[in-house]
Amino acid sequence: MTRNAFAALYRHRAPILKSAHLYHDSFTEIILRKCLQLDCPSSSCLLHRKSYSTGFTSVHGETPSAEYARMRRESLESKFGHALGTYSSKSFNAIYGFGPFLALYRAAIISFHVLRLAMWQLFVQDMKKRAVKFRETLIRLGPFYIKLGQALSTRPDILPTIYCQELAKLQDQIPPFPTDVAIKSIESQFGVPIDEIFNDITPSPIAAASLGQVYKAHLHSGELVAVKVQRPGMSLSLTLDALLFHMIGGQLKRFAKARRDLFVAVNEMVRHMFDEIDYVLEGKNAERFATLYCWSSDGIKHERTNAVKAPKIYWEYTCSTVLTMEWIDGIKLTDETGLTEASLNRRKLIDQGLYCSLRQMLEVGYFHADPHPGNLVAINDGSIAYFDFGMMGDIPRHYRIGLIQMIVHFVNRDSLSLANDFLSLGFIPEGVDVHSVSDALKTSFADQTGESQDFQGIMNQLYDVMYEFNFSLPPDYALVIRALGSLEGTAKVLDPDFKVIESAYPFVIGRLIADPNPDMRRILRELLIRNNGSIRWNRLERLERDIMGRIGKGFDYLCEVVKLAPAEWTAMLIRMSVRPEVHRFALDIISAIALHSSHKLQVAFWLYLSRLLHKMTI
């Protein structure tokens, strides 16, 4: 039975003991809470991320399947897909019984803008102009709708291509709120004057966005910190806008010609919005990110990941609406002069950021979903620092395998295999003819010249096909698309010719070589061998170069380590050289190589001869 949002909120209200030093509400929050008749101190307890956790986990290493995608989608819908449901007179009476004015005022503003949009729709049929008007209306409606538009810009399964491209232009265009309001918010959260928390704090924000703003401050211990303060009343404002969205969602859906599952997708986006305004969660995300990508479990930096930094969190000065973290001095990636003066290698910065991002999405699975230039800075030592961990993705292993598989099939221009990938991952609804999707993809590929394209070009190829066949992107992949788009946009600031798929190719090869998973082995064969059994020699040669490059880098790293402590390494190598087990190990390795070579000698000969004949016929 369909759950009603207002009724659900009303049923779940519960008295919660307030802590005098944690919950000192602003006047706006008090009035809005009276309008909603809620007993809890924050709306996050109503639309909290835990209320929407699916509890449905995948089997580690499981092969991608449409059944998993369907079950996950149903689980998401059952948990929060109806949490912002349709309205009835009974729910209106429940929520507006004791304080209707503020909520009705906001509803009137939203209705006014949507009515204008609907009237404008009657006279303008040009899709481009309608997309521009749609974006402008979202900006006027405020932070919730701006965030919503940004998220929808990566959902070609919901909106037409032209709308996705227009919404991608959305930026946080909200002016900062006064510093005295921010200071009062900090003092109310911790219950002490600002001077007892910080030795000093900047009189104006260093950076501002739709959900909060950042100040620079010194602790009494002398440490330099960044203080992120949430915009007052944001949690209750987002709650109200999320609930009122269903009053106008149908009209927006008709105007933008959106798909039927718009509301389910919006509910997933709302969940991410509430994650973004939970600063305790953001702090935990930052620490998890640092543990995975900046430091190893034994406290020793990884060879490649020491080029990535994340700010330290000061938990004693952090709560749900105030986040205090280490201040990291850096150079914006858009600051060409600063990068030049610091003598930073742009190619190296791109490689480091790309390596870390691909490791997040394809190897570990926990990734920063919004790596745009505002969330990344270059450090003078050549490393890259990440900020803003409010939006993170966690993609299961079998989805990561599916992503690698799709990349390989796209590089191969194998439209039928790509269509089958979409089917196995649950992108295509039941009943759609896979061969029709394959034909549409083949036509789309034929419209492009050359295999190397930027990510936006690839998505433009797929957008129309996805919309035509009513694709349904799982939430995991929607965030991946957003992250890849942001990553390429950031890299293009440093190198306008950067192409994320082409640049990711060596990393994908490395994953295919290093992972013993049978699915990875199968994907590697598909990459190197055509369906008719012939070998893709250019890719085989590239694979050989990549393997030799990795071996060479391994020896280079070993030499660098030996140079750091030559005496210790020399002594250790001498001790190892006289141990019998080391001798046996070396002999085993030599024997295995010799045996393998003898078995493969004939194959190697015929491969060489085939390659020679291939060159002669070119």
Automatic annotation (TrEMBL):
It comes from the Eukaryota. Pfam families: ABC1. SUPFAM superfamilies: Protein kinase-like (PK-like). Residues 169-419 form the ABC1 atypical kinase-like domain. PANTHER family: CHAPERONE-ACTIVITY OF BC1 COMPLEX CABC1 -RELATED, PROTEIN KINASE SUPERFAMILY PROTEIN. Belongs to the protein kinase superfamily. ADCK protein kinase family. This is Uncharacterized protein LOC106762737 isoform X3. It comes from Vigna radiata var. radiata (Mung bean).
